[in-house]
Amino acid sequence: MAKDRPVYMGPRLRRLRRELGLTQADMAADLEISASYVALLERNQRPLTADMLLRLARTYKLDMAEVAGDGGAEQRARLSAVLKDPMFADIDLPPLASEDVAVNYPGVTEALLRLYTAYREEHLALADRSVARTDTAEAPDPVAESRRFLAARRNSFPLLDDAAERLAGEAEAEGGLAAWLKARHGLRVRRLPSDVMAGSVRRLDRHRDAVLLDDALDGASAQFQLALQIAYLEMRKSFDALLKEGQFSGDSGRRLARRALASYGAAAIVMPYGAFAKAVEARAYDVEALSRQFGTSFEQTAHRLTTLQKPGQERVPFFFLRVDPAGNVSKRLDGAGFPFARHGGSCPLWSVHRAFERPREVITQWLELPDGQRFFSIARTVTAGGGGWGAPKVDRAIALACAAEHAHRLIYARDMGVSNPTPIGVTCRLCHRAQCMARSAPPIGREMMPDDYRRTRAPFGFGEG
Comparing C-alpha atoms, which of 330, 324, 416, 404 is closest to residue 368? Predict the structure, then answer.
């Protein structure tokens, strides 16, 4: 007969007892043990044996996995990631100490994690306010609020990843997303001409119990729209729970953040975390190969790569940028610690701005910031819309960048030296490279030199200092 394996989980037992509204004496009576023994268990002075775990599960009609749990693995990983913040660099925080806190004091751990997330969000908001401050009252910026919400959480939402993996498994068993919608919600999928859709690419028609899709959508877009509808139908409560933690001045910022969460959920359904995380390592982050494997577009796949930061299952952290031919930035997602400008454009020396000269080609580039930080970047153009003669479409360029220390894991960086990184800045107003000929504005804090007698090759000349 196998020997019971002792497990110490006093804080979890205490929390369970309180959730059930029981005193130590009540639980002792239910489990047919002494109240003093319950007290010893809760103080981790006695192990909780397999027999006792089974007795708890049977007595209180609990799932065995719910009682045993994972030993706080996710919270340990999250706390460990938070404690790597440079803010804590001068504090001696041994890994075992943080593990003890996560396991033995889950409530304190959760409080610390919430506080850190709130700090990150407020820190980003303060940065935005300092850049956008004017003499007049500042109007709320819903786009900035949504971006802060995502950035404070590193664009990673394990709650949605877990729900999406379950939904993806159900859909696969049913025969696909369309079949799942029919079986679960009684909704059939119909493809209709663009003129009938009247400007919509997807619409939920409750009167006819149908999800209507524009028939000009390509396969990847149509699949994503079905996943998006499923996310809105199945993840509403999760969206609401996540948004309660955000800081929004009005409905517009909250709605934009909710739309971002829905897109995250849809991508997680089409590219489930476990399978996708395994595939990215097998294919060395080859975005085109991953796109073909999962039936997704280049942009959808690149976007999903920025979300692979689930505690304990992290992959290469990426920064994502999307620009139009005029240089307007329409999307920024940061999981790589890249110090991008929160307002205005990016550095014109970055290859993402030259991608339009070489459509549909992946362009690689090593980057070096003024402080010496190096990043590896890939850029490529993508097209949205189209699908028929005369149908409107828009071309954009997207870039993915990761810190130099991770570049060796990418297929694009193999056999590529770092001897000539391109010197770039965050944005001209914050870049102090005086000799840059691509500069569009002088940096903050530098005195301009008169050019009565001397004109530099760079657009602006500066004093020494």
Answer: 404
